[in-house]
Design brief:
Oligomer: single chain
GO molecular function: DNA binding
Shape: globular
CATH topology: Multidrug-efflux Transporter 1 Regulator Bmrr, Chain A
Distance between the termini: 20 Å
Number of strands: 9
Order of helices and strands: EEHEEEEHEEE
Keywords: DNA-binding
CATH architecture: Alpha-Beta Barrel
Length: about 150
């Protein structure tokens, strides 16, 4: 698995939030409906008066059956009343490029992370958060997960 580490300062995501169900494995699968995403993109551009090329699909407060799911953008703009704001703390992130947001790709990525990547590299999940970074211009997706060095490594 190709990966990189990113030390990222705290940042703000502005968008919409819903409580969604996780799949049978407890994995968050973001909504990959292209027309819905395009509607969000256009709304964000109008409300925030900025061009939107990158969308974030953020999952926080995940339990076995549900997750708070945000779709939005990283911004320093003031949050309009029709949207919600999520503060993400400073973290070390492991970033993995993935082929798509399909359930198969996401399930396989998490399987590979827990079966191979975490044990070999000596890291563990840091917080109950993850996000998918969707880059429209180059049709790429990344899974960002916060990590810390494992105490047992």
């Amino acid at each position: 698995m190709e990966y990189r580490f990113v030390e990222k300062a705290p940042f703000k995501v502005v968008g919409v939030m819903e409580t969604a169900q996780t799949n049978e494995r407890g994995v968050f699968i973001p909504n990959d409906n292209q027309s819905t995403k395009e509607e969000f993109r256009q709304s964000f551009e109008q409300l925030l008066n900025t061009r939107v090329n990158n969308m974030l699909h953020v999952a926080v407060n995940k339990t076995e059956r549900s997750v708070d799911s945000y779709i939005g953008i990283e911004t320093t703009a003031i949050c309009p009343p029709s949207l919600v704001e999520l503060e993400i703390p400073k973290q070390t992130w492991a970033v993995f490029e993935i082929a798509s947001l399909s359930p198969h790709v996401i399930n396989k990525t998490w399987y590979d992370l827990f079966m191979y990547w975490f044990p070999v590299h000596g890291y563990e999940l840091a917080n109950n958060i993850e996000f998918f970074h969707e880059m429209k211009e180059c049709n790429r997706y990344e899974l960002w997960i916060p990590v810390i060095k494992s105490k047992s490594y």
